[in-house]
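TASK: fixed-backbone design
INPUT:
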């Protein structure tokens, strides 16, 4: 079962990318090498491994499929950063022009600055995200930072729905958990 962070990440990725990154580790590795213009030093830095190990993967002396789990996860994140940059830029512009609405059924709870809390309960919300958060959301998507993307969505829902753009409940922090479903679409 997918985590809440994965559900948010997948919803954004589905709206931004027209195709997924390659599935095979060797193809991902080749994409990374192409992105760094063949520099084994740059690839090693991005993967957090030695330059010699990158050379082994490149020459076929070692197989990237047999790499440590952490290395493979890092490879996925690094390839995602460079994936479809023009498509991502167009999607960001479109979202900034047309707005972004999040519809989600999830548990929402909150705590206020005064320290009082409200236990999370299942709610269905449909809310337009604040435009100023969109670039940060795209950065989190590009970096593969699932947790940060979820935090930004919670922040946006808190600002727009619960605090009504600081018209009420200033300092209220929103918890966004137990996501049943999440959907994104253009607002305007």
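OUTPUT:
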């Amino acid at each position: 079962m997918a985590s809440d962070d994965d559900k948010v990440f997948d919803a954004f990725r589905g709206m931004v990318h027209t195709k997924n990154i390659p599935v095979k580790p060797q193809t991902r590795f080749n994409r990374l090498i192409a992105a760094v213009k063949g520099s084994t030093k740059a690839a090693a830095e991005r993967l957090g491994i030695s330059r010699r190990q990158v050379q082994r993967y490149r020459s076929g002396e070692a197989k990237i499929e047999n790499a440590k789990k952490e290395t493979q996860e890092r490879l996925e994140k690094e390839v995602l950063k460079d994936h479809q940059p023009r498509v991502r830029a167009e999607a960001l512009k479109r979202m900034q022009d047309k707005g972004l609405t999040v519809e989600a059924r999830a548990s929402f709870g909150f705590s206020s600055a005064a320290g009082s809390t409200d236990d999370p309960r299942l709610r269905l919300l449909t809310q337009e995200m604040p435009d100023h958060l969109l670039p940060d959301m795209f950065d989190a998507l590009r970096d593969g930072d699932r947790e940060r993307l979820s935090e930004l969505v919670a922040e946006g829902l808190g600002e727009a729905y619960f605090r009504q753009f600081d018209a009420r409940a200033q300092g209220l922090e929103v918890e966004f958990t137990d996501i049943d479903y999440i959907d994104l679409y253009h607002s305007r």
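COMMENT: The chain has a mean pLDDT of 87.
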